[in-house]
Amino acid sequence: MQKGKINVQTENIFPIIKKFLYSDHEIFLRELISNAVDATQKIKTLASVGEYNGELGDLSIEVKLDPKAKTLTVSDKGIGMTAEELDQYINEIAFSSAEEWIAKYKDKSDGGVIGHFGLGFYSSFMVAKKVEIHTLSRKEKAKAVKWECEGTPEFTISDIKKKERGTDVVLHIADDSKEFLEEPKVLNLLKKYCKFLPVEIVFGTEKETKKEKDKEGKEKEVTVEKPRIINNTKPAWTQKPADLKDEDYKSFYRELYPMSFDEPLFHIHLNVDYPFNLTGILYFPKVKHNLEVQKDKIQLYCNQVFVTDSVEGIVPDFLTLLHGVLDSPDIPLNVSRSFLQSDSNVKKISGHITKKVADKLEELFKNNREDFEKKWDDIKIFIQYGMISDDKFRERAKKFCLLKNVDSKYFTFDEYKNHISTNQTDKDKKVVHLYSTNPIEQHSFVEVAKGRGYDVLLMDTPIDSHFINMMESELENTSFARVDAEVIDKLIQKGEEIPSKLGDKEKEQVKKDFEKVVDKEKFNVVFENLGEEDMPVTVTQPEFMRRMKEMSALGGGMSFMGNMPETHNLVVNSNHPVIAKLAGEKEESKKENTISQLTDLALLSKNLLKGEKLTSFIRRSVDLF
Question: Among candidates 75, 19, 21, 76, which has minimal Cα distance to 43?
Answer without folding.
Answer: 76
